Structure formats: structure tokens, C-alpha cells
């Protein structure tokens, strides 16, 4: 568990890198045009590649202050997008009025695995890894306080 805590920001960065690469592969290689909600999710995922990459390189735990909210907001958008795709009647409330409808599925494996679900899994993994890194920071502060006493 100590190894996971120590390298949690690296793991979060790898997840963001894989999610961004997958997103770019789907849109640029497979030519799947993203809908508006997909773009909103990308707005929160793409910067995490740079932010978490720099933080991992510098071992900068202060990334939690701005990385964690980005992952939580992006995950919330993913939940909403998944509901638009899977819950009848939610498509009318979606902001997709022009272009690709938000309830369309380019990828629908086993009737429940969709692109928004994959994005949600990535955001959840990033959130868990950043939260794990947070506990590493708290334990280090407690150890320093106990040595000073």
C-alpha cells in the first residue's frame, strides 16, 4: 500500500494519459465526432495530463488542490452523459441541440459500456489516486509533528 501511496500521482497521470490518448484515437483515427458533453469531459481530462505529469515529475503534492476538483467535476459530467445515453427521457434535457446528439453511442459494448462510462472510470481512478496521495501527505505531516514533540 505504501508503494501505491508514494506513486499515486504517477498512476493518476498514467490514467489521464491513457484516457486522453483513447479520446484522441477515437476522434482523430476512427473519426468519431464528439458531442458537446464529450467536449466538456475533455475540457477537464486534457489539462490533467499536463498538470499531473508536471506534478509527478516534481513530486508536487499541491496538485491535489486543483487536480481533485477537476477530476470530480469531469466525473460528474460523465455521470450525467451516461444517464443521457441510458435513461429514457434524459436526452431531451441534454445540451446537444446542434451536431452529434449526446444520446448516440459510437461504442456500446454489452449494452452498458459506453465512452462516457469509460471516461467516468478514468475520472474515478484519478480521484482515488489523488485522494490516496492526499493521505500520504497527511501521514508525513503527522510523522513530522510526532518527531517535533
From TrEMBL:
MF terms in GO: protein-disulfide reductase activity
GO cellular component, as recorded: membrane
BP terms from Gene Ontology: protein folding
Membrane topology: Multi-pass membrane protein
Protein keywords: Chaperone, Disulfide bond, Electron transport, Membrane, Oxidoreductase, Redox-active center, Transmembrane, Transmembrane helix, Transport
Compartmental location: Membrane
Top-rank taxon, per record: Bacteria
Key word Transmembrane helix present: yes
InterPro entries, A to Z: DiS_bond_form_DsbB/BdbC, Disulphide_bond_form_BdbC, DsbB-like_sf
Pfam families: DsbB
Family from the record: Belongs to the DsbB family. BdbC subfamily.
Family matches, as HAMAP family: BdbC
NCBIfam families listed in its UniProt record: PRK03113.1
Protein name: Disulfide bond formation protein DsbB
Organism: Paenibacillus aquistagni
